[in-house]
Amino acid sequence: MNEHQNGPEDQLKTIIVTQKLTKIYGGGATRVAALKAVNIRVREGEFIAVLGPSGSGKTTLLNMLGALDRPTRGRVIIDGVETSSVPERRLYRIRREKLGFIFQTYYLVPTLNALQNVLMPVLPMKENKRYRKRGERLLELVSLKDRMHHKPGELSGGEQQRVAIARALILNPGVILADEPTGNLDTKTGAEVIELMQRLNKERGKTFIIVTHDSRIAESAERVFYLMDGRLSDVPPEEH
Ligand SMILES: Nc1ncnc2c1ncn2[C@@H]1O[C@H](COP(=O)(O)OP(=O)(O)OP(=O)(O)O)[C@@H](O)[C@H]1O
Ligand SMILES: [Mg+2]
Question: How far is the CA of 61 from the centre of ligand 1 (A)?
Fold first, then answer.
């Protein structure tokens, strides 16, 4: 990536940047270098896909970009804050205020209905009643108005993923980090979820970073990166 180019993206604010981000799990015989000196710059309003096969480091990268885990070496800077130099309490606040997470397996609570699941992130807050209307509106936005009182077991996979997307939006984050958001969905439902994410990007200005092996997401992304064995590149591996 050329940091000195003068493209229109230079006018946009950088929201997440990594510098030589390296993550090593374990040690000795079980040592795995999951990320190797990854440099990525994410600007506000971008729709980015990171493509890579199983085990290439996608989830590890997303966890680092979302400050869910700490790098072994290198830096992750979220909205100007260098994450390794701040206490966990501050990271928790950054995650809550700036980031929304969508996981491959949805992580919905089976005993709660769709609306209650969407409201999960605000439950610890004193003023959480204020969010009920917003939760309803978000479920409407993801076309689940008539499923609000259904529990996850009574929803299809695509509907569950849409509940998870609504939940990621409840605190109105600027950035959504998504791990294989279409991984468990059939082609048609997957396409609907991609369309929904694009709509949120175009109409609401949400920044998306999606890690996936679904090449259809790459087709709809503005910028595509490729992760191979822990190394990030902006050219597909076969072109090396
Ligand atoms: N907690 C951990 N301890 C040790 N090794 C790990 C840990 N988490 C991941 N790894 C290893 O790091 C590498 C990258 O894992 P990661 O989960 O980031 O891959 P991925 O690209 O998300 O794969 P998938 O597409 O299968 O989800 C893999 O080789 C994996 O075995
Ligand atoms: Mg993964």
Answer: 10
